[in-house]
Amino acid sequence: MRTVTKIAIARALHYFVRSGRGIAGRPDKGIFLRRGILYELDLSQGIDFAIYLGGMFERSTAVALAKLTEPSSLVLDVGANIGAHTLHLATLVGPKGRVMAFEPTDFAFRKLRRNIDLNLSLTSRVEAFHYFLTANDGASVPKAIYSSWPLAVEAGLHAKHLGREMQTESAQARSLDSVLSESADRRVQLVKLDVDGFECEVLRGATSTLRDARPIFVLELAPYVLEERGASLDQLLFYFIPNGYHFYDERTQRRLPSKAKELQRMIVDGESMNVIARVA
After folding, report:
1. Nearest to 207 by CA among 247, 239, 184, 241
2. For residue 193, what are the β-bridge partners?
3. Is 207 exposed, middle or buried (0-12, 13-18, 19+ CB in 10 A)?
């Protein structure tokens, strides 16, 4: 299903939810408990609203993470946004595990930090980094990156996925390998990667991680956003295939082609495919 279709459905549902909450005198913003985790949510935002609906945000990804994450492991949430998967991962790794969450936009990072702080039993397991992950430390950071999906019809939204770019004024540019050399206290077991077209940038700075640690990746393949960032599906596969990775459908676990042209034919323009990449 295209993101634009998902947003259209969410807008319709939000109209009824907002109307009902309005009658009861309840605002769109508040603190909500969902699946044992507290979130401060703004229901006019697409990601927040999906969390509010009780696990509707990237449900198949959440299921995959639950199956793949090992207790007491080190896992990374790259493109953490407001922490929907970050906090879920923190419950999965357990009290001896660790989650490193990366988010470059000021808007989403503030919300991520707030949601971590709301969950006192999980805060010691999670470290949030206000970084834009790229090939080299100190590189330039894009002025704005998509991290907001408003449910109101607004001007200036992305034509296909209806996101809004948000500022990155406070973010630093770092390479993943550099950050891990400083902060990792064990091998990385799993990486959730969803950075809306910047995947190749992240992977360019993660060559040692891919070669040596070879963690499981749970990621989104969206050729149209890769192309918008000057990258391609073929370039993305270049980081994985030589390191022994194979791709699997996130839901069915079916093995997928390892050639970009074959994968591209499986993904309709404006859509994406959620996959697992792991070493056989």
Report:
1. 239
2. 78, 219
3. middle
